[in-house]
Amino acid sequence: MNSTWLFSTQIPFTDATRRERNKPDINMNGLGDITMSATYLPRADENSIWSRLRLSAGFILPTGKPRDNPALGDVAPTVFQLGTGTTQLALGANYFAPLNNDWSFYSGANITFPIYESSKGFRPAETYAFRVGISRSITENLKTRLSLDFSHGEKDELQGNEIGYTGSTVLSVTPALIYTINEDFSASTSILIPAHRRVNETALAVGPLWSLGLSYSF
Question: Where does residue 134 rank: exposed (0-12), middle (13-18), buried (19+ CB within 10 A)?
Fold first, then answer.
């Protein structure tokens, strides 16, 4: 909107197949939970070390379809559904600072927690995420980035009871490339590589995760 306020929306679509004993048993595809957020730069107009501080707040809306029973499977049960069925509040703080003409530093922290449980009795867990990283300009349009990411999730609840095999703590390394197409468009690719994982009981854990992105500013 201006140098102080930024509004953003993330609209996820999912096409996933669950496997148990290496055999596919359940497929889901469709719209997930949409995230709408506002970011405030309290000192954007100042020429100080705090001018790159960003504070954010937003909601994760229950637009994805939840299941009557999201806990599915016998060997490796998991919470497998497009949406949680409940609105969640997301809060965050991020900081970016140039180190010299080529190198820059950034860090961030985020917390997400549900406001209420869904009509199916499902209550997603509180999640916490921390990130620190550096980036370097390779060319005028191409930038490389390397970050260390830590995430922790408590246990989900279903009908007032904790789902024992949910919850995890993951430490990952994420290299990325960002290409500026023009003043409005940029494209990115990254791979999240888990360096340490602790999951509860038989919960499923993601391996190396590729991401592709396209950003438009207007």
Answer: middle
Taking the C-alpha atoms of residue 123 and residue 112, their distance in angstroms, rounded to an integer, is 12
**Per residue in 65-86, pLDDT tens?**
888 777 766 655 567 788 999 9
Strand ranges inside 32-184, DSSP E: 35-40, 53-60, 71-72, 78-79, 88-98, 103-114, 122-123, 127-137, 142-153, 157-158, 161-162, 168-180
The answer to whether residues 72 and 80 touch, using CB atoms and an 8 Å cutoff, is yes
Q: Tell me, what CATH number does 104's domain have?
A: 2.40.160
95: tokens are: 């900081």
Q: How many separate domains does the chain show?
A: 1
Query: For residue 30, what are the domain limits?
Result: 5-216
Q: Is the pLDDT of residue 191 over 60?
A: yes
> Which conformational region is residue 5 in: left (phi greater than 0), alpha (psi within -120 to 50 degrees), or beta?
beta
What is the rounded distance in angstroms from the CA atom of residue 71 to the CA atom of residue 208?
24
